[in-house]
Design goal:
The complex is a heterodimer.
Chain A lengths: L5 H21 L3 H6 L11 H8 L1 H34 E2 L3 H10 L5 H14 L6 H25 L4 H8 L4 H12 L1 H17 L2 H5 L8 H11 L4 H32 L3
Helix pairs in contact in A: 1-13, 3-4, 3-13, 4-7, 4-10, 4-12, 7-10, 8-9, 10-13, 12-13
Chain B lengths: L2 E2 L4 H26 L1 E3 L5 E3 L3 H7 L2 H31 L6 H10 L6 H12 L5 H9 L10 H29 L3 H9 L4 H29 L3 H7 L10 H11 L3 H26 L1 H4 L1
Antiparallel strand pairs in B: 2-3
The chains are: A mainly alpha, B mainly alpha.
């Protein structure tokens, strides 16, 4: 039994090594980095973080990213909830075809859509806005959200709906006061995935923005190429992008295992 | 039983409109480009199926496609068994479970270009932790920018680092849904650990594993940012996967026609393979 628990420990150590190295780099001065290898920061500095928090081009990158990720999560959930309900409760013309077609969009390579997206969002005059990125990310997040929520909703017995209607509940009241609380875990898991895929995606976010809504990830690539190679600054910026993800996982930690099993993620 | 109700369409309508806006219009643009030639200024010439014919006969495309299949194949062969082994060796209950899950999920929530940059810093031959250990401590010549083998080993390791946790989380979710009574029954019958795995754990994990394999296939087949940031497709063309090649043609050379034709073939292959996986893995359920 003892031997078996070694495997997860080794695996987690392997996961943490590159992250440790990124964090360690972010506390080093440029001189120390260029001078050669050191396992721990020798002259510990917060200079890189100070640069990021005082330079608007840096910290606006984070704000922009968080704005469009939140918008995307809200839109995806708002439209996916009724759709998932329809798929889990009713048969209607073309339901299976529609469900499969939705899922195929999860398979589309982002590289394929980069240029047409740029033209489409320029044509509707949404280029370089947060809403453009939020809408574009719907392409892969809505199908995923519908898929997850449908799994959770199918686990709720249909008698619940019928009893509520017999008791005189209207549909909106039933949906918000009875049905939603009973699939709370599912909504959490779906929100987690929407947040995750919108937060980590860069290709479309970069294509659809220039200045006003530029995501942090794009700011980083620009820095990497323009300012020579400021590794310390890059590492600090990278470290900061891990934090929102870590916070979100912390909130859904109890749902992760349970949620995956209940829904057919 | 589900009831027939065509009004349910109204519930689905917003999803349909949003996804169609994002999927159909760009797809039509791609189809439109794929049969035309342009020299800029919005002047287009009809080319018919020329780009498709050229592409299907081009060595460059075959090479990129081959590399893509090699990459995805290796990823599935490593990540799926590894993920299942790790999930099996995790404790089922206890205070450490949420800690393990949170730490394991962390790599998946790091933006993809940061993953690439992080692995770049990690593997720099002189000042990266891994690069320094390999070259100085172990004396193995390791430089991603010089050796195609090192570049391949690095992108595979990076993806294993990035995504194995998805397989672990899904398999683990399947495992914890098995009631204790099953294990007690197996114990009474004197079943070996392998038999417990084969007849109790594997069937229970089957559904989540199907999803894990499908997701890993789609995402590794479409991988772009991480590999592009880490190797840029090099050294030479050795790690130029399909999507990297596509972006090179579309945005680098601005050959819209060939790039569009390539996009369509790329998407068609992804769909076809996903469908094959799906039918093969759910075949038994249908019976």
């Amino acid at each position: 039994m003892k031997k078996r628990s070694l495997i997860p420990i080794i695996y987690i150590a392997f996961l943490m090594l590159p992250i440790y190295w990124l964090v360690a780099m972010s506390f080093k001065t440029t001189n120390e980095i260029l001078a050669g290898f050191s396992l721990f920061p020798q002259s510990f500095t917060l200079e890189n973080y100070v640069t990021i928090f005082t330079d608007p081009t840096w910290y606006w990158g984070y704000i922009n990213s968080i704005i469009y990720v939140s918008l995307n999560t809200a839109i995806s959930l708002a439209v996916a909830l009724p759709a998932a309900y329809a798929f889990s409760r009713y048969r209607f013309l073309g339901d299976k075809t529609l469900f499969f077609w939705l899922l195929t969009n999860r398979m589309a390579p982002a590289a394929v859509f980069a240029l047409p997206f740029f033209q489409l969002y320029s044509a509707v005059e949404l280029f370089d806005t947060h809403i453009a990125v939020a809408l574009a990310h719907c392409l892969f997040n809505i199908p995923l959200a519908v898929w997850i929520l449908e799994g959770f909703m199918s686990g709720v017995p249909k008698e619940l709906d019928e009893t509520a209607y017999v008791d005189g509940y209207s549909f909106p009241r039933f949906f918000t006061t009875i049905f939603l609380p009973s699939i709370k875990a599912g909504v959490g898991v779906a929100a987690f995935f929407c947040f995750m895929f919108s937060w980590v995606e860069l290709l479309l976010a970069k294509t659809l923005t220039a200045v006003e809504a530029k995501p942090i990830a794009a700011t980083m690539t620009k820095t990497a190429s323009s300012a020579g190679y400021e590794l310390g600054l890059l590492a600090a910026a990278g470290t900061l992008t891990i934090i929102p993800g870590a916070i979100v996982i912390y909130f859904v930690r109890n749902y992760i295992a349970k949620g995956f099993a209940l829904g057919r993620v | 039983m589900k009831t027939q109700n065509h009004k349910a369409w109204f519930f689905v309508l917003p999803v349909l409109l949003l996804v169609a806006f994002n999927a159909l219009i760009p797809m039509m643009t791609v189809v439109n480009y794929s049969v035309q030639e342009t020299f800029g200024n919005n002047v287009f010439f009809w080319e018919g199926l020329r780009w498709f014919e050229e592409l299907l006969n081009s060595d460059r495309f075959h090479a990129a496609l081959g590399r893509q299949f090699l990459f995805t194949g290796l990823i599935l062969l490593i990540e799926v068994p590894l993920g299942v082994i790790i999930a099996l060796s995790m404790p089922r209950k206890g205070p450490w479970v949420p800690v393990c899950l949170v730490l394991m999920a962390l790599p998946m929530l790091i933006p993809w270009n940061v993953v690439g940059a992080m692995w770049n810093i990690f593997t720099l031959p002189d000042i990266g932790l891994l690069g320094y250990l390999m070259n100085t401590t172990l004396g193995i010549d390791y430089d991603m920018t010089q050796s195609p083998f090192a570049a391949w080993a690095t992108i595979i390791t990076m993806d294993v680092w990035h995504w194995t946790s998805l397989v672990v989380l899904l398999s683990y979710a399947g495992l914890v849904s098995i009631p204790d009574a099953y294990y007690q029954a197996a114990k009474i019958d004197g079943a070996s650990p392998f038999k417990v795995f084969r007849y109790i754990q594997l069937p229970k994990m089957k559904q989540v594993l199907t999803i894990a394999i499908l997701l890993r296939f789609m995402d590794s087949f479409n991988i772009y940012t991480e590999v592009f940031v880490l190797t840029g497709g090099g050294p030479g063309n050795s790690t130029t996967l399909l999507s990297i090649d596509l972006v090179k043609i579309a945005l680098g050379q601005f050959d819209l026609g060939p790039a569009a034709a390539m996009s369509l073939i790329y998407f068609a292959i992804t769909l076809l393979v996903s469908w094959l996986f799906y039918t093969l893995m759910t075949k038994d359920d249908a019976k």
